[in-house]
Amino acid sequence: MHFEAFSSSELAAYLRGIPAVNARLGDDSELQVVEVGDGNLNYVYFVSSARDPRRSVVVKQAPPFLRLVGEAWPLPRERIEREVAALRRFGALCPQHVPSVYHADSEKYLIVMQRLASHRVLRQGLTEGIVYPHLADHISTFLARTLFHGSDLYLSPEAKKAAASGGINTELCKITEDLVFTYPFEDHASNVYSPALPAVAIERLRTHEPLRRAAGEMKWAFMNHAETLVHGDLHTGSIMANEHETYVIDPEFAFYGPMGFDTGAFIANLLLAYYPRDWHDRMAGREPLAFQRWLLEQVEAVWNGFAQKFAQLWRMHEREAGRAWIGGPAEARAAEAFREEFMRRLLADTLGFAGCKMIRRIVGMAKVAEITSIKDEAVRARVEVRCLRLAEALLVQRRELASVEAVTALAAQVLAQTVDV
Amino acid sequence: MHFEAFSSSELAAYLRGIPAVNARLGDDSELQVVEVGDGNLNYVYFVSSARDPRRSVVVKQAPPFLRLVGEAWPLPRERIEREVAALRRFGALCPQHVPSVYHADSEKYLIVMQRLASHRVLRQGLTEGIVYPHLADHISTFLARTLFHGSDLYLSPEAKKAAASGGINTELCKITEDLVFTYPFEDHASNVYSPALPAVAIERLRTHEPLRRAAGEMKWAFMNHAETLVHGDLHTGSIMANEHETYVIDPEFAFYGPMGFDTGAFIANLLLAYYPRDWHDRMAGREPLAFQRWLLEQVEAVWNGFAQKFAQLWRMHEREAGRAWIGGPAEARAAEAFREEFMRRLLADTLGFAGCKMIRRIVGMAKVAEITSIKDEAVRARVEVRCLRLAEALLVQRRELASVEAVTALAAQVLAQTVDV
């Protein structure tokens, strides 16, 4: 395991040796290299033509250790290969929402890909109250296309099993198993509780049986249900967007897992943005209800859009193949009955995973900026208690919540509840 | 792919070259070789010392094609390797119920293993009305030990994922996907209907929505839920038994799949033996109710024994490891609540798979001798309709049937119903 970070001139020289990159940047000018990574995990560079800055690429170098700490905290060396493979697979299925990969070099732990120059990380945009008119449409398309085409509903059993075997991502799954499904529900050293979060709310995560049982079931599903190639970390920090376009990035956690893990991650992060929303708007002197309402509408739109597009791909495929999931020239009614039940079960999975993802962001190590940026400790704790209440309800009632509208109604109801901190 | 069947003298000479086999047979005598396979699929030989016939082994040769047809019907060449790997794994976990492997040679598609000289295929014994006093105890032990130790409840995530990847068995799983979960529910050329089976009963398998939906869900679970290394074909023809001992054989279908597929297969085959039972007893001039009652008692005993032993292994492991499924020093009540829910879900899976296994044995290609041996076509059809009725109820009501006693009560109720054929 040898890793060396590039200097700017070394990186420029390296990129000059790659025809596919020269084709993007032109070979008629110096290259400008600017490091833009946050410094925790990866090295990220913008590289552009000095003559025409619109010609640019992004270079991501993912060393086999935690950059912040160094080689003493090793990370799996395959993570860059996982990310490249997933970017290529998702890109083939959904090119309009996945950055193009121009070059990958796993010996140098490096990817050169499309620069999203006019796009921002979605979480930042949502924190600032920006409305993305196409977000739900784009993300539901991404979810429907990627989740459907990796599954047994589309692939032959041979292709699916080969893909599932190739999609095992042990080390990064272990991080999720621990940080999402295990530590938040115990008294673990990695948990971080905000100062005013009531002890009773923390205690409840450890002892409330229906919640523990449901979380245990979601962990089992995460570890055992190899349904499709999921992104594996589809929060609003893994999405870059502007008013017109939406891109999904950073699929290093991709593995063959349950479909609901991706749909749940996205919806969880909309809901995590929902409860702190009015505080942000009041701070900014804005009307506090409109954006909150918009967020809940996105929860509905992304699920309903996904469900409609997924079922449509499925029906179209069955029509073309001339057979339904349970064999034979499709008896349309039985095939539809199975499809309806499948989507209901997938909504239940989605809600269960969303609940776990919300809980880990409140009591686990990794937080969301929408909530940590609230300086008033009591306000923040009230937001956190609401997130935990909704998360618990999503987990425990996931099979009873028959529609996404029931979910948003519940979310609004929790917002209206009194919280004592 | 080259395969050559041995002559008796060639096989004897081959075995003489293997020290582990000589150690079993002695080297002081000629070897007697008798072919005993049924001729459809494999070559099976008993090989014994001419001087001391108690010193013997069984040799199974599994050519990479269907023996009955020849090389024109290829079978996966890996099936003998799958079988050897599963025999060794199950044998390590449960040596008292798995034949010892003395030698394996995948180039010759061959296994030399323990001869079960005083044991008979369980299906034959059950057809003759033989009571096996330890059967349920032994099979529940086999099920609990094998299903538990291959799962995430016992293995580390790393070991589990490596085992699951190594346990992919695409071609043989495809046979099950088609013959158990797909063809029986459509108008497929491979189906075989007995002459007096009413058309309405066949039609119902294709059109009754709740049944089709449930069967579709079981197919999804079979193809996606990689919970543990299952035997994959655990019917009463894959078990050899006598009054004292029980051995599980022929695990060539072994793969990482849902636990309930094995428990369901065994229970399905007890129930398939149940409905034709009184006819066999009346033919043999025996009291027709006692053995029927015994069969239902075995259904209860094998599930309850399994559930108790599985939970016991799990508790013991958590005690030793000092942590429960959802982390932390086990809060005993939450861990027990999850365990109870897990076993309830596993019973539902068991019943769903049992339903599919029963249906495929009635309308699919492969039958069970207990039913095909009924010469009276109307009697046979009445038995078959009862099997289909119970199978449907198991599938559709699998989550409502809260105990195995509810299942046996339902089975008895279906026996008492009138059937018009």
From TrEMBL, chains A, B:
Keywords: ATP-binding, Kinase, Nucleotide-binding, Transferase. Residues 34-282 form the Aminoglycoside phosphotransferase domain. The keyword Nucleotide-binding applies. It is an enzyme of class 2 (transferase). One of its GO terms (molecular function) is ATP binding. One of its GO terms (biological process) is methionine biosynthetic process. It holds the Pfam family APH. It comes from the Bacteria. The keyword Transferase applies. Its EC number is 2.7.1.100. Gene3D superfamilies: 3.90.1200.10, Phosphorylase Kinase, domain 1 (3.30.200.20). InterPro entries: Aminoglycoside_PTrfase, Kinase-like_dom_sf, Methylthioribose_kinase. Belongs to the methylthioribose kinase family. Homodimer. This is S-methyl-5-thioribose kinase. It comes from Paraburkholderia panacisoli.
